[in-house]
Every structure is written in C-alpha cells, then in structure tokens.
C-alpha cells in the first residue's frame, strides 16, 4: 500500500494526524488491524460538519493545525453556473423610474456568431424589450463576457426641448435641470439592483459621446477577476496576551477565538477608536455599540469609550449614522449607544464615565420623544436598526418619509432598552424624577411592541408596521429584533421560548429577514450576519434552547474558519461570502460576536451594576474542560476553569470556597481562581424552525380607475388579499377588485400570496376618488425667490425654510367639517441623495399651543430641487372653519448636519380621513 498524501487527506476532511501518517507495512505487529474509526462530528447538518479540529463543507475543509494556526481551501462558487439570461432596467439619476415594478428588459447573453462583439438592440427608454430566444439547456454565462448595452433616450430629450420635463411611468415629472445621469441596473454582476448606489459604479453609467441621443456602456459579465478565494493559512502574529486566554478540548474553536482576538486588536485605529471593518473606515454608531455590548466593553473599554464619545454632537446628543433620506429622524437607532455606554459601566464600574454619558443619553431621548415617539401606538418611528439600506428590507414604493412613519421591531427594542438604561443611570445618580419618566416610557414601548407587533399565529414579532394613513404589520421575521426582544426582556411569559423556537432559521444560520424580497440581491436580504447570529445565540442561551444555541455557535464558526477572517456577512441561501453586494474582512461586530458567544454564552457572564454572575450554558456536544485565564473584571483578574456540560452547575467556587449564586461582587480585587463544575444533566428537548430558502412574491403595482383597483398579475401568486385602511377586505384570485362608490375614505392595498402561503409586501396605498376627500392650501410667496434650480411648483410659488429663513411659518387653513385630517406637505429637498448624507429637514407642526407632530422632509436627490414629494402624514383633528397652523424649527428639530436643515414647501395637503 502506498502512503496517503496529506493534500488528498486534507480535501477529504480526515484528521490531520491521519492525513500525514504513513500506512504500516505488512510486517508490522498491527498489520491487518481494522482502520481507526473516523472522528465523531461535534455537530452536523445537511450543509456542513464540524469536528473538534476541523470543519467540512462539501469539498472545502478548514482545519486547526494548532490553536495558533488555521488552514482553509475554500473557494467561492459565485461565478459558476450563472444563467446567460440578463434582466435589467435603466435608471435616471439612480432611481427605479423607467417602468413599473416587475417590468424589466431581458437579454440572452450567448456567444455571438463569428466572435462578434455582444450588444443589445437599441432599447427605447420605457419600452420593455424581451429576448424571445429560448435559454439553451446546460448553457451558462461564459467568463469575461463583454456586453454593450444601448439605450435610446431621444423621446426624453425631445420632451425636454418641448416642455422642459419628461413624464415618467408613474406620472412624476423629471425636469431637464434635474437630469444628471442614466445608469443600467440588473441581476448579473457587475449589474446591481441597488439603485441608490449606482452613482458609485461608473461602469454602469451610460454616455452619449456623439450627442445623437443613443447612450451606451460596455460591462464585463462574469468577470474572472470577481472570482474569490480564501484558500490559505492564518497564523497568529500579534501579542494578545493582555486579553483573556481560552483553551478547551476543541482546537478549532480555540483557534477561531484566537483569530478573533487578533482581529479585535487590528480593529483599533491609531487615534484610539474602533475601525468598523477592514473595508469600512471610520466610527459608526450602531456598529461600535453592538460590538461593545457583545464583548468590547470587557476587552477594550478605553477604546470603547473613545469610540462612543466620537459619536456625540457638540450639543451633546448621540450622532445618528448617515442613512436613508438624510439620516435622523428617518433613522433613529442611534439609541443603542446608550446600552453600549451602560455596558462599559457594568464591566468597569467607572463612576466618572457614568456621569459623563448620562446627560448625553437623557438629551437624546428627550429629543427622540418629541420627534419620533408615536403617542397612539407608544412605538418609536424610524428605520430598522442596522438594516439601513432601503431596498434591502422595504418595498420599493416606500420613500424615506414612509420609512420615518414606519415602526420597526429592532429599533423599538433598542429604544426600550435605552430608556431602561437611562432609568438605571438616573437612579444611581439620584435623579428619581428622570428615572420614573424613563421607566414609564420603557413600559409604554414594551406594551406597544407586544400589542402591535406580536404575531400570535407565527410565534414571533412582525418586522415593522408600515403604510401611510393606516398601517399594517409586515409578517416577515427580523432576526436582530427578535433576538433583542428576548435579550432585553421585551418578550415575557412563554414568548421568549416561543420566539426562539419559531423564528425561521436556514441551513447556514438565521437570515436577517425571512422570507426574502424578490429581485433584491443579497446584503441584508438573503443574508446572514454573524453579529446578528451571535445575538440570536445569546437569546437561545437565555431561554435554554440547546439546539438553537449550539447551531449558532457553529453558524458563527463556519464562515470564520472557511474564510479565515470574521466577515461582515454571507449569502443565506448558499453560505458564500462573495455573493453579497458589499462585504468586509476583520469586521468589528462579527469578531465581537464570536467572542461574546464565549463570554456571555458558554461561560454565561452576566454583568450587573454591582456584581458579575455566572450563568454558563454548555451544550452536551461541547462537554469537556475549558479554561479562560487573565480575564480582567474591574479590579480583579480571574482564572476560570469550567468542566462538563449543562445549563446549571453542580458546584462553583472562588479560590476553593463556595460561591453563592455564582456571583462575585464588583468590589473584588486581585487575582482569583473560579472553578465551575456543570451538572452534566441533559437539557429539556428544544427545537428550531428550520426552513428552506424562499423568496416572497413581488409587491403588486396597484392603480385605481373606472371604479376598480387593478394590477398586473404577480409571478408566483396564487391569490391576492385586499386591504382597506390596513384591515382585511377581500381575498381574490383575480387581478382586479371593484370598489363601491360613495364610500367613506378608504386607503387600499393589495398583498400577493404564493402557493406556500408567503406574502408579498403590501402595495403602495391607493385612495379611490381621492379628490373627494382632499383640499390643498398653497404655500407661496408672490414669486419664487431662490438660488436653487427649481421647477414644477404649483400655484404662484413656494416658501424656502432653513436655519435662517422662515424659522416660523404660519399656514392658514379652513375646513368645511370638523373631523380627522391627514396633513402632509409637498416639498423638495435637493441637499443630498436618498441613501446617505445627513440633511433631512425637520419641523414641528402646531395648532395654536397644541403639538400636532413632527414634519419630516427627507433628501430626495443631489441638487434635485424639482423632484417633489410628500412629507409624512400627520393625523389631526381640525375644527370646522378657519385655523392657523404653525411650522417651526424647534430645538429638537436639529438634524445630524447641524448647519443645513432646509427644504422648499409648495403646498399643504389636507385629506379628510374620518
């Protein structure tokens, strides 16, 4: 017999020693003995298997050669077996505005005869092109396929010359002064459906160099350079001895722990702040906060402090990261900063730090209460926490003002905990009135979450409430929000266990949302984020779900081992890192999550204001001895040894003496030894809701005409549900629905339902006979006076509001009948793109002394002052006759820019809704 090569054995996933061992000769005393049994898996699924020293996924293997060295032969399959059928659409100014949703151009990118260059026909903007050729069986897109895409924009240019604007498919006018770029978006790299970021991909912009109205660009599809690999070796190279050191009976997990420690050190910039990721420079509020909560408050508290303070305005408010519509208050998850600041206090006991951050948190919540709290639902408005890429988690029709109006699970869980933290800080500082108010707000938010977002038939919380005048709940599961609801104590009674058992989980982990959104590439959609998986694992540990906790540990270990770094994310449906829109190595919250699962999961460290309690949770598959040495807690240095498995312990000692309740006081100083003997009792049976990849139906595009709602048939839909004012009205298999005339105000939406019962997002709200309920008040000066490139206002003009102009604006109104009205403003804000920057305009609306609500005027495009939209609707009761509304720039209306807080207002719309 010949020797088995190490490389062959490596690929087969055999043990390292066996892979490098020569077979005994026949004369050996052990000749003829049966071969050694293969090592038993620690954990196994249909997708991958984990052994003590290795991990195998198909033909890919990662192995711990020692606790200081990892190898992997992983190579991304992202470029293999791509269909030659290309779907694409054209985009003016980076918006999805060529054709109705679901109407895309199709082209079959097959090799051209005679080696000719591949190009599309000249496609007229707004006229769908469908390639009638059948897709050949077993035909895939060839690597490095150049494709020239050609577009006829002459109808648009002719409309500019004739009337100064072009009418888009949805009736919106694009004025010549606002026409800046034309891009192509699509389904095959380098094409992308991420409209908001097309401006950052110059190859996707079409040009007309000869001025004949035919625009074109050439893209290289399935580029060989896009193929990615992580095959190689990680060798420990940094001194991480100042951090807690882990050893266990599982070399692979120990090596991954050490790699995470190294990456934690690499994540510190020269200025003493955290770097978000290798490809993400700068300090991001939510990234550092979630990372600090997971483990960095314990490991690197001084860096954590410096990073948090970097995210505070000169006025002493928490900075909201840039995001949809110009950041705050469309995005409101900055409050997670408060929980991170509290975590630093819990691990350090630094009273000076507590006094420093307390007023920052208090001011921030006081502003948020005025600007973003919904008095009716007791929920907080704003974008999903961390899911801040509009098209990745929201229906395309939702504008930034709609996202502000929505109420998300994860963001509300963060605000609940932020108020809990403020209350605890206030109590310690003797501010009893502040503590009482914070506790009251927290209780209201908790009540609102459980009343308005809980889905009893699903066993978890809905993703968000959304709509316009009336809202309904998206039944998608949102993993981070579900985890936070359990960890922060929003879920009570049997709900925490129910949430962990029923939230959908896929083979490679818990997806950010489920089911996925049609036509949107992986990033938040169809993706697993290791830091979310870590929070999910900690939630599983809290409720004693061994199945979910063990699988979470493995779901975090798998990508780190195969990719040899803690990646930002990976595709949920295939586990690959290369298929998402953006990714980064050395990602701060990913590595922090891997460490947090050790400290807060396996060892069960529960940091409290005056003590540290150990609540370990070791799945039976991970039974053994593990040691964590040099753990620094306040004034103490702890060496911890833990043996066995289980959720409870048989015995726990401090320096050989029994440790009551597994708790050490915060006043402990010096070096100490803790020994934990687990009870080795099997845990109660547990389960998860394992699901396969599923894409929900596309969102219907609904119109009203001639007494009926109508919409194009939705691919994959078996039925449609019609909503009226957010409530069920009818179920139909047709693509029309007659609306009775003469009815009270009704806001209609349609949801597509597929054969498995999964729902699309609800369509954009439609109000039949809207003119019956609507009156318009012109907001104008005698003639427009502004340096901005504006067109398309109504009436005689508009009013510009800014930090210096019209800080208080009176708007007289007169209504014929007392009732409830939805008030919104037609406005333009060209101070930035929809997807980034920080110049959302904010104003407070009052009727006399009565506070009516906050008017949010988000960005709509860079220097696009003729792109008009509507603010969020505010539902108010108006008395019959004349009233005067006032729109003011209040102190709480400061945005994240500070200097620029402006928009131009065209008219006020009043819609009688009740």
From TrEMBL:
The keyword Signal applies. Residues 1-21 form the signal peptide. Transmembrane segments: none annotated. Residues 336-468 form the Alpha-L-rhamnosidase six-hairpin glycosidase domain. Keywords: Signal. The keyword Amino-acid biosynthesis does not apply. PROSITE patterns: PROKAR_LIPOPROTEIN. Gene3D superfamilies: 1.50.10.10, Galactose-binding domain-like, Maltose phosphorylase, domain 3. InterPro entries: 6-hairpin_glycosidase_sf, 6hp_glycosidase-like_sf, Bac_rhamnosid6H, Galactose-bd-like_sf. This is Glycogen debranching protein. It comes from Hymenobacter canadensis.
